[in-house]
Amino acid sequence: MPDIEQLDYNRIPTHVAIIMDGNGRWAKQHGKGRSYGHQVGVEAVRVIAEEAARLGVKYLTLYTFSTENWNRPAEEITALMNLLLDSIEEEIFLKNNISFQIIGEIEKLPRQVQDRLYQCIERTSHNTGMCLVLALSYSSRWEITEAAKRMAKQVVNGELSPNDITSDLLASQLTTNFMPDPDLLIRTGGEIRLSNYLLWQCAYSELYFCDTYWPDFRKEEFFKAILNYQKRERRYGKTSEQVK
To answer: What number is the average pLDDT over the span 163-183?
Structure first.
């Protein structure tokens, strides 16, 4: 158990992004079906969301369902969608003053899931604490491609000059334009890759990988990731002397 008192509350990352990996392998390890791993993973979401809000994290973005996940077995997708519908409990948002947002190709989701998501966004819109963001049917390559298409259309219509296209303009066209880039990206489950997640936004993010499967990821593991982040020097291409 990490020493909580070691945490520097003045250096809590503003935006934490998490790739919640390992639900299926955790379930197999426990002799259960994959959907059971997703069910237990929901409890980890509740615990980490509440703890992140308590620590002062402003944005928590969770990779919940990628565009590639549509290739999974139909029964697993159905179970995931039903679980998503059942697990969006407004109690966690209201109790912790958390607002809610979503990013991704939301129109691909079942209509009842879309309606429930948008209801939660509306009902939590006045909350002033942390913003919990779910990446659903999300792909970074899709996001960047769509942004490029929108700018290309503006150029064709004479609304934009190619010389006006900057990294800031492209960033403003992304679905994440309402929040800052992640300071810290955490991936659970032992894999060391980004899996098409926030590729543009994570250009200068600190990356933290751990072997713990997501259903077992709790406060202690989250504190380890934050402490690890706080020990790093973020230089953004500068030298240590310049940063100091």
So the answer is: 97
| Catalytic site residue from 69, 127, 196, 228 | 69
Task: Identify whether 21 is a catalytic site residue.
Answer: yes
Range with the poorest average pLDDT among 18-22, 115-119, 173-177, 178-182: 115-119
Catalytic option among 8, 10, 21, 181: 21
User: Residue 171: which H helix or E strand, with range?
Assistant: helix 167-172
User: Cα separation of 61 and 125, whole Å?
Assistant: 16
pLDDT at position 104 over 70: yes
Q: How many CB atoms lie within 10 A of CB 18?
A: 27
Which region among 104-118, 170-184, 199-213 has the lowest average model confidence (pLDDT)? 104-118
Average pLDDT taken over every residue of the chain: 90
- The token pair at 151 is 């700018």
